[in-house]
Each structure stands twice: as structure tokens, then as C-alpha cells.
Amino acid sequence: MDGPADRGLDERIDDLEALYQDLHAHPELAFEERRTAALVAGRLAAAGYAVTTGVGGTGVVGVLDNGAGPTVLLRADMDALPVREVERVPYRGTATATDPDGATVPVMHACGHDTHVTALVGAVEQLAATRSAWSGRVLAVFQPAEEIGAGARAMLADGFLDRFPRFDVALGQHITSAPSGHLYARPGVFMAAADRPPRRCSSRAGAWLAAADHRG
Length: 216
Ligand SMILES: [Zn+2]
Prior knowledge:
- By secondary structure, the chain is of the alpha/beta class.
- The protein has six helices and seven strands, in the order ααβββββαβααβα.
- The protein has helices at 9-25, 34-46, 113-129, 151-157, 160-163, 203-215; strands at 50-55, 59-66, 71-77, 96-98, 104-106, 136-143, 169-171.
- It comes from Pseudonocardia humida.
């Protein structure tokens, strides 16, 4: 991959790695992503995007108009989880927060949303820097509260579809356990299930689940 739109990409890596480590060291729970949102808004504005903050709570939307062509929505989620980090990396998160029940909980980017934010910041900055190589419109969406399944709905309830350009295609992302350098893609839902097995089920169903689990 080495075209006009890739120009300068390698020089961004150190800066993006620093951004990732900063985000990882400062995780924030769902709808509390104020520091993350402010960081993102600053980067978007510096890159030339029209920025709207506070969409659906802490959501951030950036729009880059670059002539005729499709409008592409690129999305990342920003929130972390109430999980204690045991990794010994120097940039590990040591933050605590108060959860909605009033309990003090540890916070960690255990689901990789720090990576998602970094990747999208890198992509939108790269697109802005190489805008002579493409035309169309970028709609960058940094969504709050994915972990509790509420952030996208909150952005929609805040008039997202009316306030921002209609898009032709939407691309989400999620990291996964896979060999480094690999990218997996498919249309439709991918890594987006939030279902749990029912807590109560019949003994026959339970036996089947146990058997299936054993086989798996
Ligand atoms: Zn996630």
C-alpha cells in the first residue's frame, strides 16, 4: 500500500503511539469520556474538521468537506470498562471512577477502545493531510458509551441524522485477537453482539448447552 493517500503515514506512527498510551493511561467510563472527547475534538479541529461536541452526551462529530463524492461515516467508540488493569506496562491505567450505582470502581481500556480512537484519529488526520488525493466528505463519529449499549442511541436521540450530513456508507471498527497486520472485514454486523445466555433455562437446554460447550 503506497499511494498518494498514504503519503506521510509512517511519520505519524510515533505521535499516534503516544496518543494511544495517553488514552490508555486515562480511561473513562461510559458517558464520562470528557477528557477523551476533548482530546479528539482538538485533533479534529487542528486537522481542519468542523467539530461538534456534546452529541448524545460526550459524543464528538467531525465533518470534512472535500468536494464531490460519497459521504463516508467512520466510527470509533471511546469508553472504558470498570475493570482493574493487571498489566505492568508503564502507561497502564490506575484511575478509579464512580459507577452509576455510586460504587468506586477501577477503570481500564480492556476492550480496546483506546486503540479504536487512536486508529480513527490517525485515519481522519491522514485523510485531511492528503485531501488532494481524494474527493468526497468524511463524517468522523466518536461515540460514547458503547459498553452499556447506550451511546449510539443517545447520539440518534440528539438529532444525529438531522444535524449531520447523510452518509453513503458507514464503517465501524473493533480490534480482535488476530495476527498483527491482519484486517478482517464483512458487511453487516460483526463483533457487535451483546447477548448473554439466559440465566434460567430448562434442564434439557442446559444439558445441550453444556454438551455444546464441551465440544467447543
Ligand atoms: Zn469494545
